[in-house]
Amino acid sequence: DRIRKGTSKTREKLGVIEELFTYWNLDDADETLEELEDALIMSDFGPKTAFKIVDGIRDKVMAGQLKTGEQIRAELKASIASLLQQRGGSSELALPEAKPAVLLVVGVNGGGKTTTIGKLANKFASEGAKVVLAAGDTFRAAAAEQLEEWARRSGAEIVRAQGEKARPDTVLYQAVDTAVKSGADLVLCDTSGRLHTNWSLMDELAKCKRSITKRLPEAPHEVLLVLDGTTGLNMLNQAKEFNETAKEFNETVQLSGIILTKLDGTARGGAVVSVVDELGVPVKFVGVGEGIEDLQPFDPLSFVDALFP
Ligand code: GDP
């Protein structure tokens, strides 16, 4: 129900599409399909993804497999769900057998990175896990303070920079070291969201990743990109840029998942589908509010049902 509440604005926007199904005119299927494509684009599905979805539906309409608006609605839901499942792959976190699991969390400032780490810490701590937070954003003074507050609220331990000149990769190394020595289950690594250029940011993140691996060879187990859902297709471009820069770095910081925040405040939730489609990376969680409990594991089927109930 949280996901339904969190997607209410997007669902309202998709009302245009629901109307199409009600008045679906099979005599003029071409025009109606074009209207469907336009409506999907207007709902932030992105031209490429909208085209792909509608093309699949068009084939079935032409082959006489879909006859009523209701059938077409069902086909639309099924194709969005299968796209999310097949293009994205598993939405489950890849947690290792041996502890600790190390998650490296990256993303632009203001996207909700720190809040999301707080919510994740709370989720796992409330399930009984011992959680360590690593304050890896040493460039922004307030970042560690903010993380400290989340550590307090969730009951997690926090590892912060020692001294003015401590580097992010040193902090992350120490956090993983602390977790290994204390038998913690999970390390959540915060990182900086802004440097002078994408290149220098990626360079920094690559160092962070190497430093984690140096302490724990198979870690990090996930690299999660936090994206602000209210920015619609802009976040797609942000994620693409991240991926492109990562490739130039020989993919040392290859993304394993996306966390989409602020879905509750936006009608642009359709962008989830284009992000997964174009990047081929799964959404693993969605943020549906500012509260500590407002994080939902992403499930493609519930998401599609929430958009088209
Ligand atoms: P960071 O700079 O990426 O670490 O971003 P913050 O975690 O500081 O979050 C920026 C703002 O977004 C804060 O005001 C958060 O309360 C808000 N925020 C984060 N996640 C969500 C969400 O899922 N829903 C809503 N409505 N606000 C959120």
Automatic annotation (TrEMBL):
Protein family according to the UniProt entry = Belongs to the GTP-binding SRP family.
Part of the whole protein covered: 76 to 384 of 395
- A Gene Ontology biological process annotation? SRP-dependent cotranslational protein targeting to membrane
Which UniProt keywords are listed? Cell cycle, Cell division, GTP-binding, Membrane, Nucleotide-binding, Receptor
Where in or outside the cell it occurs: the entry states: Membrane
MF terms in GO: GTP binding; GTPase activity; signal recognition particle binding
In the bilayer, the protein is annotated as: Peripheral membrane protein
Residue span(s) of domain SRP54-type proteins GTP-binding: 282-295
Indicate yes or no for the key word Coiled coil: no
GO annotations of cellular component type: cytoplasm; membrane
Does the keyword GTP-binding belong to this entry? yes
The source organism is: Chlorella sorokiniana
Q: What is this protein called?
A: Cell division chloroplastic isoform B
